[in-house]
Amino acid sequence: MSGGIVLAIGIATGLLADKIKIPDVPVFLIVGMAIGPEALGLIDIRADSAFNQIILLFGASYILFDGGASLRFGVLKQVWITIVVISTVGVLITAAITGIAAFYVLGVPAVVALLLGATLASTDPATLVPIFRQVHIRARVAQTVMSESAFNDATGAIAMFAVLGVAMGTGEFSLTSSILELFKQSIIGIVAGAALGYLAALLVAHERLAFLAEYAPVVTSVAAIGAYFAADGLQSSGFMAVFVFGIVIGNKDSFGFKMGADEQRKLEEYVSTTAFISRLFIFILVGAQVDFGLMGQYLVGGVIVVTILMLVARPITVFLCALPDRHARWSFNEMLFMCWTRETGVIPGALAGLLLGIKAPGAKMIASVTFVAILMTILIQAPTTKWLGGRLGLLDGANR
Questions:
Q1: Partners of 137 in the beta sheet?
Q2: Dihedral angle at the C-alpha atoms of 72, 77, 81, 82, nearest 10 degrees?
Q3: Has this prediction a pTM greater than 0.85?
């Protein structure tokens, strides 16, 4: 019943967002808040329910696959250094600055402040990928931001668990072990995604071996989820694997694979429809699960910390990580735009929920500020993406 309500309201909401020419993600979030248990009470789906977990897993995976498939090798060759640096070192810079802000603004212990910083440090691919599918920004900028959001969740999670071990008194922070863990997760995720992506491309687009070409939508769906579970089972980033899987499928022509026009059109229509349904479910459910009572406990301090995250931590991170990349030769306007695109969503929300579940030190405060960050970044940054892109001269012809 709840699933049907979400689907019906989500489709109507998506059509409305398309009609008034704004990204649908913030609209879905507002609608979710309105129909959730804190307002109208039309749906009440707990964050720890099996239904919610399935939606988040499949939905986020498919959105990442869709985002990866839109990237092109030619563009990635220009900006890969920035992507690597900003999704690793950049996460640590953001976590440190946000943690310092939380320490002084909220008056919490340093380790708890750093735990909050690490939770909020990664950007959210489930939010950013749909935005850049709807708002057509200059290719290398959009693809850098989407790639960063897909790759930095591993860094954010590793940083959070490293600080958590210290906060819980179960371990000591080790820079060497953290770097090795990040390297391991990245390599396994990339290899798993690339291997399954190549296999799927072989089965649906090879000149002689593509005996599953007419079943390309099913093959890609199964393989995308398979990439997630393969990487996750090897204690790596499943989302990273799915994103790389999408990159390989999207660039299958580079490997000599080419689908027929009809099969390619069917696949693109299926991916577009499935990604739309995935994001309407994800963000309506995220909105419905916002705990206003919990959020209100640290509302003022949370707003100040998130404002510093958006207007101080992110710009410092972008300029420190992108400016030295002489190969990419970023313009000031491009870097300024990247400073504004760091939405917080599903991944930080899941990490905050985990901290609540294990009763980590400061967990309620962290969950409260995370809710504030999700609302502020999605409701303020997402709707203004097209406007800012236009002001900075970064929109392509489709948006002018």
A1: 395
A2: -40
A3: no
